[in-house]
Amino acid sequence: MTKFGALLILLFFLSCSCPPAGFCVDAETPDIEEKQAVSELPYDYSSTVRVPVYLSITKQISTKDGLQEGQKLEFRVIKDVVYKDKMILKSGDIVTGTLETIITSGMNGFPAEVIIDGFDIPSVKQSQLMSSYNKRGQNRCFWVYPLKWSLTLIPFVGSLTNFIMGGEAKVKTSDVITIYYYPEWK
Question: Exposed/middle/buried for 141, CB within 10 Å: 0-12, 13-18, 19+?
Answer without folding.
Answer: middle
